[in-house]
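Dear colleagues,

As part of the handover before I leave the project, I'm documenting each prediction I ran so the next person doesn't have to rerun anything. This entry is a single chain, and its sequence is reproduced below.
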Amino acid sequence: YAYNMENIDPGLFIFLASCNPGVKAETVEKELITQINRLKESKVTTAELDKVKINTRADFIFSLESASSVANLFGGYFVRGDLAPLENYEDAIKALKVDDIQKAAQKYFDFSQSTTIILRKGES
């Protein structure tokens, strides 16, 4: 799971992963780094991007199913002082191109500026 925190100032991009039983966190971390580097070094396919667009749109529509969710969504943008990103969200997703994904990954996924946290269950 990954997402960008939408704050007034440039925010934080978070990747979250849970390990299956028997899988070490370091193995998952290494694979995550491999996938991030893949985004930086090569372009996603049009099919991959289309799938992400469909899933993102579906998530957005699902987020509008209850009054409290809509209020929370609009409230978040309202306190940041700009509803335009919300109003233009679907058009912005539709407009994304394969090159945009690679350029964003190259610009924002800088490992020298990253922090990794691994949480483990305590031993009983």
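The beta strands are 2-4, 13-15. The CA atoms of residues 1 and 17 lie 6 Å apart.

All the best with the project,
I.
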